[in-house]
Structure formats: C-alpha cells, structure tokens
Design goal:
five-stranded mixed sheet; globular; binds asparagine; 336 residues; Neutral Protease, domain 2; Elastase, domain 1; binds zinc ion; six-stranded mixed sheet
Length: 336
C-alpha cells in the first residue's frame, strides 16, 4: 500500500487557517489521517458519520485543502491534546488503552431523524461528536470538549473511575480539570469556562456548559432552581460544596449516573482553587500524577488523599504546597 505523508490545510470553526499532516493515498486522494511523533508514535484518523446509513468513512479530500471545519477541529485538537499529554511524561498506560489503535474521531454523529446530536462522548475506542441541536453548535469545534472526551480515555486507562456517584463525579471532574489546565497552557480566552466555544444562544445565561471558578453560576439565573440541588433534572446549576451534594439512590440515566455531571462541581471548584494557588504547570503535574493513585471506586476524600500524595511525590512535604491543597479541598467541604 503506497501512502505518503502530506501537509494539508483548512479553516476550523474559529475561522483560523490550520495546517496539519495528512496522508496521500496512491490513488491521489488525501486522507484525514497521519502518523505523528514518537514514544508513542500515534496514528490519528477522523471519520464522518452518515445519518441514515449508520456508517462511518475516513474523511477524504481531492486537493488537501479541507472544507469540513468539524473534521479539521476534531483532528487538530486531538493532536494538540495528545501533544500536551506527551509533555506530562509517563504514558506507560498508552499501549493498554483505547488509544493504542489510534486517536480516532467521528464527527457529524446523529440519529436516524437527521437531528443534530447534542453531545459528544468517548466510546471506549474513539471519540464521537455531534453537530449540536438545541444547546450546542458542533461539539468538535470546542478545544475543551475534545480535551474532556480524550481525558476520559486517559482516565479509563489509569484510575478507571467507575461512572457512578462520587467516583463518577471524579471521572467527570478530572476530565474538566485537565481540559481547564490545557486551556490555560494554550492561553485560551476563557480557561475556566467549559465548552464556551460550542454553545448556541439557547438561553442567555447558558454561555458555558460548566464553570470551574463558579460551578453554580447557572442556578442564579435559572428561575425554577431553588438551590436545593437534590433534583438532577430540575437543577441546572452544580454544587460547589459538599453541603449541596446531590445524593441519588441509583446510578441510572435519569439520575445522571448519580449526579456525575452535577457533583463534579465540587471537586472542579477545588481544582480551580488549587490552580489559583499553585499555578497551571504544578497543578497539571499533580492532577496527572494523581490518576495513578486514584482507584476505581475512589470517594471525594480518597481524591483529596491522592492529590496530596501526588504533590508530596513531586514537591515533598516541606513546602507550602500541601497546605494550599488542603485549604482548597476544605473550602469545598472535602475534609480529611
Ligand atoms: N459529554 C458527556 C461526557 O463526556 C457524555 C456523557 O455523559 N458520558 O461526560
Ligand atoms: Zn465527561
């Protein structure tokens, strides 16, 4: 099979021209695929989903000037995210992860009715992005969303946090926290907002999906929200303290798996406070390292201990770092 590396270009959803490696097939057609870097050398591929046929096809282009902004963003943002992970060091988990076969993205995912799918997810083997419907525009157009979904792959291969109640909220929180920290590293305009680049003007106050600096921001504006965060579907805000933690009996779709996207506000706010205290790089190093200390059923308290353990490994017990971390977790009600 004769394929050669090529250099493609195209404009993403931000309107900026991006350049990226592609592959030229023997038949002269370019593929949105490439092999990049080393240790590990990573295969990237981006596919488009065809509604009705329920099939995916590798993106192709005749002149290597790409015309699909969602595909361009899914492809280039996933390369950016993996490069940021490579900068963190130990990627020993890679070969046993869902990424080992390649960093694969599917864009334009939708249902048979041809409605835009208003979500994105990590399937266990690849990332899937909808074009949005009510709340979102195309989800691949958000660096945060790509970071968040790819981080689910990393979490699955490391801490493997069970997607239910507190460990599930930690799974969500680490995906958001690392997305926030990667946004900070990139100098993003709004690093503490999650998914702000993909929001539709559905409700004026829903200008981001979540806020790390102010998890309950939506509840201030949502009329039906009574601040008793005990109803996952009625409440749009997230708690920022364990006093308002949502307690579900069962982990079902109806309860958001026991409030994984609700209670993530609590550790999210701790991650924000730690970032303010320690800075981006130290927090990133500590959070990444903590994935190797968290076990799959970790509670919020276990997460505090894991973060402290990581910080001790990296900075020792003599600096003010541990004290800053304790102060942050105490502030959100996660005490020892
Ligand atoms: N976008 C969501 C997430 O990654 C999908 C889900 O609920 N699993 O958290
Ligand atoms: Zn998630």
């Amino acid at each position: 099979d004769t394929r050669e590396a090529a250099m493609g270009s195209g404009i993403g959803h931000q309107g900026k021209l991006k350049k990226f490696k592609t592959t030229k097939h023997a038949n002269g057609i370019y593929l949105l695929a490439s092999q990049q870097g080393k240790n590990p050398s990573v295969q990237y591929e981006t596919y488009k989903y065809t509604v009705g046929l329920d099939r995916i096809d590798l993106l192709k282009d005749r002149d290597n000037v790409w015309k699909d902004p969602s595909a361009i963003d899914a492809y280039t943002y996933s390369i950016n995210v993996i490069n940021l992970y490579k900068g963190l060091g130990d990627l020993s988990w890679w070969q046993d992860s869902g990424l080992a076969m390649g960093v694969l993205s599917v864009v334009h995912y939708g249902d048979d009715m041809g409605e835009g799918y208003d979500n994105a997810f990590w399937s266990g083997d690849y990332m899937v992005y909808g074009d949005g419907e009510k709340i979102f525009k195309t989800l691949a157009g958000s660096f945060d969303i790509v970071s968040h979904e790819l981080t689910h792959a990393v979490i699955d291969a490391t801490a493997d946090l069970v997607y239910c109640k507190e460990p599930g909220a930690l799974n969500e929180s680490w995906a958001d926290a690392i997305a926030m920290l990667f946004s900070l590293k990139r100098g993003a305009a709004n690093p503490y907002l999650i998914a702000e680049d993909a929001m539709k003007p559905y409700q004026p106050w829903l200008y981001a999906l979540r806020r790390m600096d102010d998890p309950s921001f939506r509840s201030d504006q949502y009329p039906e929200n009574d601040h008793s965060v005990n109803h996952p579907l009625k409440s749009w805000g997230q708690p920022a303290h364990t006093d308002e933690q949502y307690i579900a009996k069962h982990c079902t779709e109806k309860t958001d798996n026991g409030g994984v996207h609700i209670n993530s506000g609590i550790p999210n706010h701790a991650a924000y406070l730690i970032t303010q205290a320690l800075g981006t790089q130290a927090t990133l190093d500590i959070y990444y390292q903590s994935l190797f200390y968290l076990n799959s059923t970790a509670s919020f308290k276990d997460a505090r201990a894991a973060v402290l353990q990581s910080a001790t490994d990296l900075y020792g017990s003599e600096t003010g770092v541990l004290k800053q971390i304790k102060t942050a977790f105490n502030a959100v009600g996660i005490t020892d």
